Predict the 3D structure of the following.
Amino acid sequence: MPHTPDGRARKVSKVLVVDDDVGVLSLIARWLSEAGIETVTCQTVETAKVCLESWSPDLLITDVRINGTNGIYLAVLASQRVPRVPSIVMSGFNDPVLAEEAKHLNAQFLNKPLSRDQLQAAILALDSQS
């Protein structure tokens, strides 16, 4: 099992990343892989639904807008299909309403473009939650 920088066992070891931008998917998958986190990427909500049921990730990272579908809907669906799975919702739009919606779902909200450090901090925060 992968470990956090301080040597503790990582709670987040399997991540589902959903975005319709292949470049974003590749970049995040690379960052997660380099951190020792197993990653599956999806470009559509329909594919993500299948992955949620067949793979049961420890974390969902999703864009807010995926080919016309709302990523916040996907975060709600994920919490119903995989109990207690946390979500990180990303958006290229600095929209306080979206950020508030994510907060009500207990999801973290990150603005794109995001850095590796921002993503790592968000995941470490999830790892430190009991």
In short: The first strand starts at residue 14 and ends at 18. The beta strands are 14-18, 38-42, 59-63, 65-66, 69-70, 87-91, 108-111. The two ends are 18 Å apart (CA to CA). The first helix runs from residue 22 to 34.
